[in-house]
Amino acid sequence: MKTKHKWAVALMTGVMALGVTACGSKDASSGGSSKGDSNYPQKPIVMVAPSGAGGGWDKTARSVTKVLGETKLVEQTMTVENKPGGGGTVFMADYASNDKKNDYRLFVSSPPILINNLKKEGNTPYGYKNTTPLAQLTKDYGAIAVKADSPYKTLTDLVNALKADPSKLTVAGGSAPGSMDHLVAVLPAYKAGVDPKKVKYVSYDGGGEAVAALLGGNADAIGTDGSSLVEYMKAGKVKILGVEAPERLGGDLKDIPTMKEQGLDAQFLIWRGVFGPQDMSDAAKKYWGDKLKALSETPEWKKELQTNGWEAEYKNGDDFKAYLDKQEGEVKDMLTALGMAK
Fold first, then answer.
1. Residues of the chain with pLDDT > 90: what percent?
2. CB contact set of 23 (below 8 Å; sequence gap of 6+)
3. Do 115 and 86 form a contact (C-beta atoms < 8 A)?
4. Range 270-297 average pLDDT
5. Could you tell me which residues come within 8 angstroms of residue 290 by beta carbon, excluding any fewer than 6 positions away?
6. If 292 and its partner were Cys, which of 54, 135, 192, 326 is the partner (CB 3.0–4.6 Å)?
7. How far apart are CA 256 and CA 58, in angstroms?
8. Closest CA to 93 of 113, 118, 115
């Protein structure tokens, strides 16, 4: 019981966030000295989404680059590159090994950068300590959805089916087993007294692919970030049964009940932020610190937040790093409770 309490506390307290394109190698020379070039940036910049198209990372990367360009905060060309595989682990292995000083290759991430480094199965030796956290920009919340014509009309219907026989249902997510979407997906079952290890979870490379599996009849439900489900809900393709937030959200999700309203005190906060390479130059760190803070204050960014159903939550690089240090301990406790810690 004590272990369960620790896991619940960890969830409720906030466990849940550019290489040169053809014109430069990914070796140590890409970033220059520790001080860096005072005229940075002088080349096109790539913002990586470590997933397929359509999920939260992809949308965040595209929104950030779009607003930075539209507002002229960044005048160099910026492009988004998708690097799916292993819920972000494939990209992290490449990035931490080959881009340690590459100031022109940034990426977006969220709690999986912590979880993938700490879990037992499918883990990676690389995590946020192999990067330079630059800024947290948003917060989102986990949600559970089903196909629009699903027999499960309410969260209670779905949870009761899981209670009866968790092996008969398949829950999809856009990250690897033991990672963020998995934890989002099993949280309601756990809160209802179902052993989370018995829930059948199938992972896909990004929220977009997981939704496709749901719509194709290969899953009964999906657990992922609420904002990435909005477009499918508005198109009448999915029904969101509940959000893992402390209170109802605004925007397009304003009519979706929280899980607490439905008798389950289940909350899962998802942050998203921007990261640079581990040995990023001082010039690049200052540049992106200034630009991302300015981005967070623009009307264009606030409009993007509203469009995507995200909530603003800005932290500068130092504060973001301190937050990640704290969350690392909470994630480890949570994975231990699931028997998934390495």
1. 63
2. 43, 44
3. no
4. 97
5. none
6. 135
7. 24
8. 113
Q: How far apart are CA 161 and CA 146, in angstroms?
A: 13
In the chain, domain spans = 2-140+271-337, 141-253
Collapsed DSSP state (helix, strand, coil) of residue 30:
helix
Q: How far apart are CA 20 and CA 30, in angstroms?
A: 8
Closest CA to 53 of 186, 208, 201, 176: 208
The three-class DSSP label of residue 277 is: strand
Residues near 273 by beta carbon (within 8 Å), at least 6 away in sequence: 17, 108, 109, 110, 133, 134, 135, 136, 137, 315, 320
Cα–Cα distance for residue pair 56/72, rounded to 1 Å: 24
Backbone dihedral angles phi then psi of residue 79, each to the nearest 5 degrees: -130, 160
Mark out the alpha helices in 13-154 (DSSP H runs).
Answer: 56-70, 89-98, 112-118
341 secondary structure, DSSP code: B
Bridge partners (DSSP) of residue 269 are 141
| pTM: predicted TM-score of the whole model, two decimal places | 0.73
CATH architecture of 141-253: 3-Layer(aba) Sandwich (3.40)
CA distance 69 to 167: 48
Residues 6+ apart with CB under 8 A from 126: 89, 92, 93, 95, 96, 117
pLDDT at res. 171: 97
Give how far Cα 253 sits from Cα of 114, 227, 264, 284, Å.
27, 8, 19, 37
148-203 pLDDT, tens per residue?
999 999 999 999 999 999 999 999 998 877 888 888 999 899 889 998 889 999 99
Q: Do domains 2-140+271-337 and 141-253 have the same CATH topology?
A: yes
Q: Which CATH superfamily is domain 2-140+271-337 in?
A: Bordetella uptake gene, domain 1 (3.40.190.150)
In whole angstroms, give the CA distance from residue 209 to residue 219.
12
